[in-house]
Design brief:
The structure is a single chain. Helix content is about 25%, strand content about 35%. The protein is α/β, with parallel strands linked by helices and about 625 residues long. Strands 19-18-20-21-27-26-25-23 form an eight-stranded mixed β-sheet, covered by helices on one side. Helix 2 packs antiparallel against helix 9 and helix 3 packs antiparallel against helix 4. The two termini are about 40 Å apart.
Length: about 625
């Protein structure tokens, strides 16, 4: 038993008042009478009635005490927990809003059919005075209605009507958050474990895990899709194109077309290259490869973009077209100038060109000591021993063993210091350029001290003197080695190639890691400049003043990236976002739905005991009245 209003027990203070009344009440009264005989006679009879009278007084007191106690309990509202019996039926409906629900047949999409059937289901639940929850499973599942009763029937009807009228615009272009929808359904089941859960979908689930699956798929639905496209630089430095295609729901001949725009750095296009594939139910995905023999204009060593497409009238249009970018590699120009040239930097430049050929077209100029070097027009400058009067401001600059400090470098040089040839270096500030570099493997025998180096981070030390520094500002991107490679073993160690590779990626990063992504993926963005603009489908326009940055893509189509290079020119790149292949397969079969955790537990509610306590109080009042009347008439 519990008390709903415990403060009502303050009424028990009335018992104290009752006791006080009995304490101060006189037990007898002294009276003068005229006859001792009558007194003696009355006393004789009174002695015979004393035991009964005392018992009656005690019973009256107990009745009054219990009556006051019951009054206090009534004020405190006593109650007990009893098992709740809810005879109303309850249902939870989940509507799949994934991209595959956009598939249409006879002018109606799967999603519209699902909403239409849920409307009928909701009307039946409301007519039977039941309880209904509706969950929409798109990117992030949400409640359209939560534990609504018949009084909310109009609200549910309006919400579903709005959902139906919006059609496939309420669907995601990616996969539905079915797991999140099941978690929301479990919130309802925590309240009523007997509620039934229904999923309206077109996906076939082998193990339904306690969920009633209602299929809204039609028998004649089918879909042809361009699943993927990739252009690869072959050993002869010409491109080949690999295309993955699929056909689901029927056996069919599907022709895949490919248009190539901006071929070989000019305005020429190669259009309507075609391949016809025959798909069977048991082989619904195939790959084709286009090589030089398929291109009417001969070999292709660069292109602006590819457009791969299917013209068949299937039930799902969003995967019939695919754009591939990245066929025009950006050119990175490198100049190496030294008064005493070595082969190490030439090797590094060739290594960069070979390993980064998929991202960059690297051109490098290796100058002889008598050649005149340039201070503009390059993306990376390497100056060794002999320094320019001013550091170039339109590219990254690598200064090695400087003889003088360029005017705008922010450096003041000191004297040269000779040390033991086996002197090793120590690590300075943590930095991307020195990732995985072990300074214990690097020795120097001679270096130049620095008097000042405003704006630089110290990366490597000898004793207390920095010997490798980096500066990264808008128009001043400098890496400095204060020692000569001729007085160090660095060029012979793996750390040299590692630091050069890290430096290239740090100052000249790829803006994106790929040129094609799926809906729902997070795209990592970087920039050679200080800012980055992005535009895309659905009037997307975003500005990033800090990079690296991330962007989660949720609409298919082409996205355009624009950044400003150090020389003031604009760098424009594009990438394509496609519907996931999982959604293109409209006849897919999934092993299991998320497990629906249902705890079968008894539900309880408070049942008040006021009636019983009131009846007991009335009974005591009657007993007390009866005792009082008998005492009065005795």
């Amino acid at each position: 038993m519990s008390l709903l209003i415990p403060l009502g027990l303050l009424g028990l203070l009335s018992i104290i008042a009752l006791i006080l009344i009995y304490i101060i009440k006189p037990n007898y009264q002294q009276k003068r009478i005229s006859s001792t005989y009558v007194w003696k006679l009355s006393l004789k009879y009174k002695k015979k009635r004393i035991p009964v009278s005392r018992l009656s007084q005690i019973l009256i007191f107990l009745c009054q005490l219990l009556i006051l106690a019951l009054c206090a309990m009534l004020l405190a509202k006593p109650a007990i927990l009893e098992e709740r019996i809810d005879y109303k039926s309850e249902s939870v409906v989940i509507i799949d809003a994934s991209a595959s629900m956009m598939v249409s047949e006879n002018g109606e999409s799967r999603f519209e059919r699902a909403v239409d059937q849920v409307k009928d289901f909701a009307n039946n639940v409301m007519d039977s005075d039941g309880i209904l929850s509706v969950i929409v499973a798109d990117y992030d599942a949400y409640f359209l209605a939560q534990r609504s009763s018949s009084s909310d029937s109009q609200l549910i009807e309006d919400s579903l009507e709005e959902l139906y009228a919006a059609g496939t615009s309420k669907c995601t272009y990616g996969s539905a958050d079915i797991e999140g929808a099941v978690e929301l359904a479990e919130q309802v089941l925590e309240i009523n474990s007997k509620a039934e859960v229904y999923l309206y979908t077109a996906t076939n689930y082998i193990n339904k895990n306690g969920i009633n699956v209602v299929s809204v798929a039609e028998e004649d639905e089918w879909n042809a899709a361009v699943l993927n496209c990739k252009a690869t630089v072959e050993d002869d430095n010409y491109y080949s194109i690999t295309i993955d295609a699929g056909c689901y729901g029927r056996d069919a001949n599907i022709t895949v077309y490919c248009d190539i725009f901006g071929v070989n750095d000019n305005d020429e296009n190669v259009e309507r290259i075609s391949k016809t594939l025959f798909f069977y139910a048991e082989e619904n995905e195939m790959s084709i490869k286009l090589t030089t023999s398929d291109f009417s204009g001969g070999p292709i060593y660069s292109f602006k973009y590819l457009h791969v497409y299917i013209e068949d009238a299937d039930g799902f249009e969003f995967d019939n077209s695919y754009f591939y970018y990245g066929g025009q590699r950006q050119t990175i120009r490198i100049q190496y100038a030294s008064s005493d040239p070595n082969n190490f930097f030439g090797t590094i430049c060739r290594l960069w060109r070979r390993q980064l050929k998929d991202k960059w077209n690297i051109e490098y100029s290796l100058l002889r000591k008598e050649d005149k070097f340039e201070v503009e027009g390059f993306d990376l400058y390497i100056f060794e021993n002999t320094m320019p009067e001013n550091v170039p401001t339109d590219g990254v600059v690598l200064l090695i063993n400087p003889d003088i400090a360029p005017i705008n470098s922010g450096l003041r040089l000191g004297d040269r210091v000779a040390v033991s040839p086996d002197s090793t270096l120590g690590l300075g500030n943590e930095h991307s350029i020195t990732n995985f570099v072990n300074p214990d493997n690097i020795t120097i025998a001679n270096y130049r001290k620095l008097i000042s180096y405003d704006g630089y981070d110290e990366l490597l030390y000898y004793a207390n003197d920095p010997v490798m520094l980096v500066k990264n500002e808008a128009h001043s991107k400098i890496v400095l080695f204060t020692f000569s490679l001729n007085y160090s073993n660095l060029s012979l160690r793996k750390e040299f190639a590692l630091m050069m590779y890290n430096m290239f990626n740090y100052f000249i990063p790829a803006t994106i890691t790929d040129y094609a992504f799926e809906i729902g993926q997070t795209v990592s963005l970087n920039a050679r400049g200080e800012d980055l603009n992005i535009s895309g489908p659905n009037e997307l326009s975003k500005y990033f003043d800090e990079v690296p940055a991330e962007l989660k893509v949720d609409s298919p189509g082409t996205y355009t990236l624009t950044q400003t290079a150090m020389d003031g020119s604009y760098i424009v790149e594009e990438f394509f976002v496609k519907v996931p292949n999982f959604e293109s397969n409209i006849t897919k079969e999934v092993d299991a739905l998320p497990l629906l955790n249902v705890t079968n537990k008894n539900e309880y509610q408070d049942k008040d005991l006021l009636t019983y306590f009131a009846a007991a109080m009335v009974a005591l009042l009657f007993v007390e009245w009866l005792l009082q009347s008998r005492e009065y008439f005795r």
